[in-house]
Amino acid sequence: MKKTLLIFLGVLFLFFNVNEAFGHQLIFSDGMNTKIDNSLYIPDPQISWAMYGEVKNNVLFYKFDADQKEPLYASIVIPALEGLEEFHPSLAIISERQNIGLISLQVDENNTDLPFELPEKFSAIVFDYYDNFPGRVFYEPFTQVNYWERQEIRIHHINPGTYYLAVFNTSENGKFTLAVGEIEDFRNANFFDSFVRAWFETKIFFEDYLTAFVAIVITAAIFSGIGYGIFRAVKRVIR
After folding, report:
1. How many CB atoms lie within 10 A of CB 223?
2. pTM assigned to the model
3. How far does CA 154 lie from the centroid of its chain?
4. Can you tell me where the transmembrane regions are (predicted)?
């Protein structure tokens, strides 16, 4: 029994490569955050979060609260998939006008064009990607996938308040990953969501269905082996 458990744990750690885990925790989305009132909530913008999304002739919204003056980091990367080599969605920061005014003093961007209306007393600033395509490659070791980097936003400090992020592209559809925050903190994360579920979500997001299927088969075989080992141990005890 003990030997079987040790084998299982060894295979699990080798398979999911936990020591090289992605620094961002994944916030899972059902894709229903297409209105600002239904924004996907980011618990703490200082913690490293990643959110998968796909623009389909719509806008995807995200929300966070700043409790004090603090820095803000946000970036977009594109999964290295055929057809997305030149996909470059816009990223907008939305908040009350005085908050956007402070941000505008710290950046060179002055684009405020949006394909949607803002709430009263709110303003926005839009960040776009202007570099070469397909972009610099970023390799994520935990899930063994490549991304193309797009715009990266670093703001020294933002006012306390409520903020929204909006990702959109008015000319084409495609997949993206939005990253927010830079502090790697897994103290409140659970193993299943942060590693197992995140790994499978990434494979599906990258349309790597074969690897996901093989992983399911291997996992099922491991648990079946453990179950069989427990059955034999119980059977010996009964005898």
Report:
1. 11
2. 0.81
3. 18
4. 209-231
Domains of the chain plus CATH, in order, are: 1-21+188-239 (no CATH), 25-185 (2.60.120.380)
Full DSSP string of 161-221 = EEEEEEEE-SS--EEEEEEE--B---TT--HIIIIIIHHHHHHHHTT-HHHHHHHHHHHHH
Determine the angle formed by the axes of helices 2-16 and 209-238, rounding to 10 degrees. Answer: 170
Question: What tokens appear for 121 in the block?
Answer: 């007393």
Two structure tokens written together for 27: 């916030």
Residue whose pair of structure tokens reads 């994360």 in the numeric block: 189
Q: Give the distance, in angstroms, between the CA of residue 10 and the centroid of all CA atoms in the same chain.
A: 27
* Cα(15)–Cα(13) distance, integer angstroms: 5
